[in-house]
What does this fold into?
Amino acid sequence: MQLSFLRPWAPHILSILRILAAATFLTHGTMKLLGWPAPFPYPLNGLLYVAAILEIVGGLLLIVGLFTRPVAFILSGQMAVAYFMGHAGQGFFPVLNGGEAAMLFCFVFLYIAAAGPGPWSADAAAGRD
It folds into this structure.
């Protein structure tokens, strides 16, 4: 079964993917720094504080689609580091080592860095993509 009827919507679906992934990512940072939507269960150290700043600032920039490609690339790298530092040592399978979110964010952001922000973005409005 072909779903070619979705092809014209692909750029808009890319924008929706960017917005929803970034909004979800943002909540990881707000949890760490603001205790919202729930308190962060671990004490913050320097590395987690830097991660929280990247999650908040990067999440906000990606939601509006500003500087999308470089921000998405940086956040993809952050999630790769998070996966290998925090999860990979606990076993091979992400479903078992708790690294599914880090792995998915890594590759979603890498895709956005390659594909661009989509038409619903500040970058597209400014003619930068």
Observations:
- The chain has six helices and no strands.
- The chain has one domain: 12-118.
- The two ends are 32 Å apart (CA to CA).
- The mean pLDDT is 96.
